[in-house]
């Protein structure tokens, strides 16, 4: 047989399936003992992510749930940042619902500036979600409020 977790500077079959949101393939690979925490690398030194990272970045909620049920390691802060960076509202909603206290604390942590980053990306739905979870619209990050980040600098200049 073939090695199910094979990869060398490319995605494992499980990670590739998670990127595509292929729940059927993910179930099949897990049934054949695919490692849910296998890590992919772009090269010898650059980490590219895990199957869970791929599912979160793709907004594939059912895939995220399945991986977590099978013991996938979740670094909540990284997952929330990836959700905002990739503008995956569904992923962020899922994380905030699944981990309400820790998620809200991270979302509103002014040292992380997630609300500020979301406002800079002009993603109104994510900004509203973060505010609904208690983020302070008047907080500052790098001496700017979320509103200042949302404004086009050419308009203010």
Structure characterization notes:
With about 160 residues, the chain is mostly helical. About 55% of the residues lie in helices and about 5% in strands. The protein contains eleven helices and two strands. It has a two-stranded antiparallel sheet. A hairpin with a 5-residue loop joins strand 1 and strand 2. Keywords: ANK repeat, Repeat.
- Pairing-aware structural class of the strands and helices? mainly alpha
SS strand fraction: under 5%
Strand order of the largest sheet: 1-2
Count, helices: 11
Q: What do the pLDDT scores average to? A: 87
Determine Rg (CA atoms, Å).
18 Å
- What is the strand tally? 2
Principal-axes geometry comes out as elongated
Largest sheet descriptor: 2 strands, antiparallel
Amount of helix: 55-70%
Question: What is the end-to-end distance?
Answer: 64 Å
Give the low-pLDDT segments: 153-157
- What's the helix-strand series? HHEEHHHHHHHHH
ANK repeats: 47-79, 115-142
Keywords: ANK repeat, Repeat
InterPro entries: Ankyrin_rpt, Ankyrin_rpt-contain_sf, Multifunctional_ANK_Repeat
Pfam family, one: Ank_2
């Amino acid at each position: 047989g073939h090695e199910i977790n094979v990869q060398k500077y490319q995605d494992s079959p499980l990670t590739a399936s998670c990127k595509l949101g292929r729940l059927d393939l993910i179930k099949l690979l897990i049934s054949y003992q695919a490692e849910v925490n296998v890590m992919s690398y772009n090269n010898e030194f650059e980490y590219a992510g895990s199957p869970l990272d791929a599912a979160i970045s793709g907004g594939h909620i059912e895939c995220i749930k399945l991986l977590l049920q099978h013991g996938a390691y979740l670094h909540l802060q990284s997952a929330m940042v990836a959700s905002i960076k990739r503008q995956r509202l569904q992923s962020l909603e899922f994380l905030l619902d699944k981990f309400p206290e820790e998620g809200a604390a991270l979302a509103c942590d002014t040292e992380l500036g997630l609300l500020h980053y979301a406002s800079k990306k002009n993603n109104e739905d994510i900004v509203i979600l973060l505010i609904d979870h208690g983020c302070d619209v008047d907080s500052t990050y790098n001496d700017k409020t979320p509103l200042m980040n949302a404004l086009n600098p050419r308009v203010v200049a």
